[in-house]
Amino acid sequence: MFALLLVTAAPPLDRPARAAPAHRTSHTAIPDGPVVLTQQPGTALDQTARKLNAADLAAAARRGDTPVVLVGSAPLSTRAGETALFVQLQSAALCGSAGCATSVYLQKGHDDWTKVLDSVSGPVSLSHRTHGGMHDLVINGTDRWVWNGHAYRDTMPAPPMDDLRRSIERYQAQHPKPH
Prior knowledge:
179 residues, four-stranded antiparallel sheet
């Protein structure tokens, strides 16, 4: 089970939070704050998210599924005006025991986007700490992802393969297959 925070809307990427119309609530993430994902049907953010995730949405449609598209934006770069798009598709088929995956895209040109973080599960927050001119991302409150110049990479060390192999071999030795 996962919690979902819904708010009215966030400003489009091409407009700063302060310029949002009065009938919309601005929810642009700030360093050391959460990235709020919301449904924003028909907005520029929603249209871009649907275009970037067209293959996943088409596959879901073939299964008779209609995922909820949640979007948000945040200023990942320390340079003004460079904003990222956060996208989460929600459906029973696309979400697992860890929740629903969120991907992050950076705009490189007018209609050119690059995925810089793929499929992380859990709440995403911006950190005040930066690497390479980009704010670190914190997933689930403890898992820090840092910019390596091209994409975000996890800072949590993976378990050494040798230890994993030895653990599997020990388990298999203690639990032999019946013949």
